[in-house]
Automatic annotation (TrEMBL):
EC identifiers of the protein: 5.6.2.4
SUPFAM superfamilies, sorted: P-loop containing nucleoside triphosphate hydrolases (SSF52540), Restriction endonuclease-like (SSF52980)
Gene3D superfamilies assigned: 3.90.320.10, P-loop containing nucleotide triphosphate hydrolases
Keyword Cytoplasm attributed: no
Protein name from the UniProt record: DNA 3'-5' helicase
Domain spans labelled UvrD-like helicase ATP-binding: 1-471
Keywords: ATP-binding, DNA damage, DNA repair, DNA-binding, Exonuclease, Helicase, Hydrolase, Isomerase, Nuclease, Nucleotide-binding
Residues the record lists as binding ATP: 21-28
Organism: Ruthia magnifica subsp. Calyptogena magnifica
GO BP term (any one): recombinational repair
GO CC annotation terms, alphabetical: cytosol; DNA helicase complex
Residues covered by the UvrD-like helicase C-terminal domain: 483-739
Length: 1053
């Protein structure tokens, strides 16, 4: 195997290394071996620290080390790959015995911890002067967000304080006086304060020079790359051809510009000359480009140069990127709003710290900030000083997931380390598996250390390539696919990582190890059926179904349940939706408040009592008394069924004991007692026992911080998932599967797009070179975003694009033997952008083409829509006799019902983007809705005609364009009401709300009159939509009605 040399080198404990270990390469085993080797040569176990990012990973590594030591107490294994670990562990046991370390009795001597845990050690070593007792770390997102919101509200309340009044008013005005946006800005920034708090201020105010220097670094770095490319491909002849150009900005380009900020305008001019506004090489030039007719020879020569350069994508991308570079010289208005935002954020941090002190809590970000501050204030330059041990060696697992803040901490810890002083750094990870951008991980840091080192240490780079997990067919298949998907050039800022080939450790002969199944638009039912078929065809294999988002499993979960196939759903099914959880929540509410009628009815209906609905109805009608009193009243019980009386009496006997305990014990203990009495442990399944433990822990956590209210409990339940018993079929997200392996991997939903994130009010980016940029979204009075905001938005989109590639790589490298890929095309029979399917489309193009051919529909002739069928003559309702009014009222009701039905059906076709359904399918849908044979043909014609008019409309392409931002039939909820939007999308930084209407023009009504009638009728409705969505989106919002009958898009706001 071709990487054995590198694996042996990694065990040289006299050197520092950074190791790139792709999926299946035995990274954890190598880390274990290095750790054991270091223990065997160290003066004490505490002199070796191993760090990773999650408690789960810490537990796994610790278990590996302990199991290795235990196995070393037995005979040497025959397998060669186990012998290295055995020999190393044996030496550690010998050292432990000689020095009386007692490692197998004192596991705490293994210094294996998370990076957050290390920060906690530092912070606890040097607590603040006013901290008398250790603080409790807030782990739950809901509790953390709640305290951020409180800090935001306290910040706003300071609007009357002279020091902050102007800044708060300025930021509010900038956000169109939207208080919710003001809160969201603060909450979002507090959650990222480790990125900006230590860099943004100087003497308590915004240091604008920090932002300028960051912009300069970014610009110069980009221009240096571009200059190298231009010098490589543009010769002297090209610049001579520009000498006679009639445009001064082009004629002055005499040669390759310098890579300086001062030359930025020249670079922009060069970009404008070479590329179109779409960023493509120009294929023609004219007088507008400074090449009039008399310069025909020069023009043709320049065009020829562009044609020759058309295949050089890196040069083109770098040229196009010049227009997207950030601002260096900020305008006065930009500086003012940035200063005001900085002042508001400073106050928000103060308010947050006050809340932390009052509650004696803090979050992980504060732990990291305190650790950094402690190292600065106490001038601790060596990790050994704060741990009171002579630490010689640090190992870090999953180094590709390091954030900039964590990187700075590591730099400070080893700042005094020197080459040759016996101290070593061992960093291991796989940049191709960096999928935690949402946790601020910076994969570019791995690339940076690989080239530049860290502090004074320049680790030697080692590349592993052997895959011990997957068969040769899977490995070679993945090599073929990802060598085409991953970028060819690495970019630390954008997170672009080149693909590194792997080599299988064992051979197989499966030619169909990777299989692809495309499906027609939105045929998720076919996709789920295929998943079921794959599972049934592989009855003995361990199978995992991996998805990008939990919602992508809905159809699959349903079909597996119908087929009675057991599955283990890892963090898939929300805990709140489990029936037993609901019963426990109702029991909690009933115990907290004996007068909670709904809770009492729920617990009486729950299995532990099981009261029938007719008995519950009897109890619910007694409005003047609480149900707990009613069920103890014999006279009331006589009104229940015999079965109900028996159930109630048993329940009351138990529950009275529970209520009597409340004053003697904590609520957690009372609830635990209640659950045990009502649902004894022997009656609970394994899953429900796990839910009980999980629920009681939530109650304990709430009670311990004196927030034992239903709202807080509900918040704590949010984001938690029901436990699942072990099964052969496993369902999980790709993120949850990282580090795991399975015989057969199924990846459905390839054509589904991820959920759209709410646009950021402030874009913030901390780069791997320690640069920091931030920019707020434009205000309502501004026409365009700042260059910095545009640049950061572009960087974020590029980072997301490259992480999508890596996420697919993680999913496909979980497989040992087989991979099954399933995805649906969009309504245009294409793969939607920003999907896995888009990445795979070029590789499986022949199967795409085959599917398109099979789903192509015959073109139907387009006809005009007739007037809507009237069921009665337009009589004057008020002048009818009473009997006629009744008949008319009924007929109007029928008319309106049919109109509503047809409108709903048309909406469904719009939602599904089905504009050419066959008449039989329309007939089937109408018959399902109860439409009789007499009227059905006219209704079919109406639907067909409306859809044809829509397709013929000039607005059709724009309205139904495939966008990643598009949402259909989406509901938004605020404090007052909820709204359902027919179609929603972002176009040129404007949010469009589209409401479809099937209204038709009257016989004597002009188009103008019809439009005015629709505006009068629906303006208020669309205004309410706009108000509701302004709480979710920080951008310009426009509303429009689309009336297909007259082919008009009526803009309201």
């Amino acid at each position: 195997m071709n990487d054995q040399t590198q694996r042996r080198q990694a065990l040289d404990v006299s050197q520092s290394f950074i190791v790139q270990a792709p999926a299946g390469s035995g990274k954890t085993e190598l880390l274990t071996q290095r750790y054991l080797k270091l223990l065997s040569v160290s003066a004490s176990p505490e002199s070796v620290i191993a760090m990773t990012f999650t408690k789960k990973a810490v537990s796994e590594l610790t278990t590996r080390v302990i199991e290795s030591l235990k196995l070393a107490q037995g005979n040497r294994p025959k397998e060669s790959y186990k012998q290295t670990t055995y020999d190393l562990a044996l030496k550690v046991l010998e050292k432990s015995k000689t020095l009386d370390w007692q490692l197998l009795n004192m596991y705490e001597r293994f210094k294996i911890l998370t990076i957050d845990g290390l920060s906690g050690l530092i912070a606890s070593r040097y607590p603040s002067k006013n901290q008398l007792v250790p603080k409790q770390i807030i782990a739950q997102n809901c509790v953390r967000n709640d305290i951020y919101l409180k800090a935001a509200k306290q910040t706003l309340l300071a609007i009357d304080e002279s020091e902050y009044q102007n800044s708060i008013e300025s930021v509010l005005l900038y956000l169109d006086n939207n208080v919710n946006k003001f809160y969201r800005l603060i909450i979002d920034m507090l959650a990222k304060r480790d990125q900006w708090l230590l860099k943004l201020y100087q003497h308590g105010v915004l240091n604008i020079e920090t932002l300028r220097l960051s912009s300069k670094k970014i610009i110069i770095q980009h221009l240096l790359l571009l200059k190298n490319e231009v010098e490589r491909y543009f010769n002297v002849t090209f610049f001579k051809l520009l000498k006679d150009n009639t445009k001064p900005e082009f004629a002055q380009i005499q040669g390759v510009p310098d890579a300086t900020v001062e030359s930025l305008e020249v670079w922009k001019n060069l970009c404008q000359l070479c590329l179109t506004t779409q960023g493509k090489w120009r294929t023609s030039l004219n007088k507008n480009n400074g090449f009039p007719v008399e310069l025909k020879t020069q023009k043709q020569a320049v065009i020829k140069i562009f044609q020759d350069l058309s295949s050089h994508q890196q040069l083109r991308k770098l040229l196009a990127g010049v227009e997207q570079l950030p601002d260096v010289n900020f305008s006065t208005n930009q500086i003012n709003i940035l200063q005001d935002i900085a002042q508001v954020l400073k106050l928000a941090v103060i308010q947050l710290n006050i809340l932390f002190d009052v509650n004696q809590t803090y979050d992980f970000i504060q732990v990291a900030l305190d650790a950094n501050q402690a190292l600065d204030e106490h001038q601790v330059g060596d990790v050994a000083l704060f741990l009171d041990n002579k630490v010689q060696h640090i190992l870090i697992d999953e180094f590709q997931d390091t954030s900039a803040t964590q990187f700075v901490l590591l730099e400070k810890l080893i700042i005094n380390w020197q080459v040759g002083d016996g101290k070593t750094l061992f960093l291991v990870g796989d940049p191709m598996q960096s999928i935690y951008l949402f946790r601020q991980s910076q994969v570019g840091l791995f690339l940076q250390v690989r080239v530049q080192g860290i502090a004074n240490i320049k680790p030697k780079f080692l590349q592993l390539s052997t895959n011990f997990r997957s068969s040769e067919s899977v490995v070679e298949g993945n090599n073929k696919i990802f060598s085409k998907i991953f970028p060819q050039q690495e970019d630390a800022f954008k997170g672009a990582i080149k693909y590194e080939h792997s080599q299988a450790n064992f051979v197989d002969e499966n030619e169909n190890a990777i299989r692809f199944y495309p499906f027609a638009y939105k045929r998720y039912d076919f996709e789920a059926q295929k998943v079921l078929e794959i599972i049934q065809n592989n009855p003995t294999k361990e199978i995992v179904i991996l998805v990008r988002s939990r919602s992508h499993l809905d159809d699959i979960v349903s079909i597996l349940k119908r087929a009675n196939i057991e599955f283990e759903a890892l963090k898939i099914l929300p805990l709140k939706e489990d029936l037993f959880t609901r019963d426990l929540l109702s029991l909690t509410r009933a115990l907290k408040h004996l007068g909670d009628k709904l809770a009492w009815l729920a617990i009486l209906r729950a299995p532990w009592c099981g009261l029938l609905l007719e008995d519950l109805l009897v109890l619910s009608q007694q409005d003047e008394r609480v149900i707990f009193d009613l069920i103890q009243d014999e006279q009331v019980l006589q009104g229940l069924s015999e079965n109900g009386q028996l159930r109630i009496r048993n329940f009351v006997h138990v529950f009275c004991d529970i209520v009597n305990q409340q004053s003697r014990f904590s609520f957690t203990k009372v609830l635990a007692f209640a659950i045990n009495q009502l649902a004894p442990q022997s009656s609970l399944s394994v899953k429900r026992s796990m839910i009980k433990i999980q629920f009681l822990q939530i109650i304990h956590d709430c009670e311990s911080v004196q927030q034992l209210d239903i709202e807080t409990i509900n918040q704590m339940l949010d984001g938690l998932y029901a436990p699942s018993v072990n099964a052969r079929i496993k369902l999980m997200t790709i993120h949850e599967a990282k580090g795991l392996e399975f015989e057969l991997v199924i990846i459905p939903g390839l054509g589904r797009m991820p959920q759209n994130n709410i646009p950021s009010i402030i874009h913030l980016q901390e780069f791997s070179n320690q640069s920091l940029l931030l920019a707020p979204i434009r205000s309502y009075t501004q026409l365009d975003d700042s260059h910095t905001y545009t640049y950061l938005k572009h960087i974020k989109s590029q980072q997301n694009k490259f992480e999508t590639m890596r996420l697919l790589y993680v999913a496909m490298t979980r497989a040992k033997l087989e991979i099954h890929l399933l995805g649906t095309l969009n309504q245009s029979n294409q793969a939607s952008s920003n999907t896995f399917l888009k990445l795979l489309a070029p590789i499986f193009q022949h199967q795409f083409d085959k599917l398109k051919l099979s789903t192509t529909e015959d073109n139907q002739p387009l006809v005009q829509a007739p007037e809507f069928v009237r069921y009665i003559k337009p009589l004057e309702y008020d002048n009818l006799p009473d009997e006629s009014k009744k008949k008319m009222d009924f007929q109007l009701s029928v008319d309106l019902q049919y109109k509503s039905l047809l409108g709903t059906l048309l909406h469904q076709y719009y939602e599904d983007s089905l504009f050419s359904p066959d008449k039989q399918s329309i007939r089937a849908r109408l018959m399902e809705c109860g439409v009789g044979n007499m009227d059905i043909d006219s209704h079919i014609n109406f639907i067909v005609n409306m859809l044809n008019l829509t397709k013929q409309d000039k607005h059709f392409s724009w309205l139904f364009k495939q966008r990643t931002s598009t949402q259909v039939e989406v509901e938004f909820i605020n404090d007052k009401h909820s709204v359902i939007i027919d179609r929603l999308f972002i176009d040129e930084d404007t949010l469009w709300i589209i409401d479809f209407k099937t209204a038709t023009k009257s016989n004597n009504e002009s188009i103008a009159q019809f439009i005015q009638r629709q505006k009068i009728k629906y303006t208020q409705q669309l205004l309410s939509y706009k108000v509701a969505l302004s709480e979710y989106y920080s951008m310009e919002i426009k509303c429009a009605l689309y009336c297909s009958s007259v082919q008009e898009l009526i803009e309201i706001y």
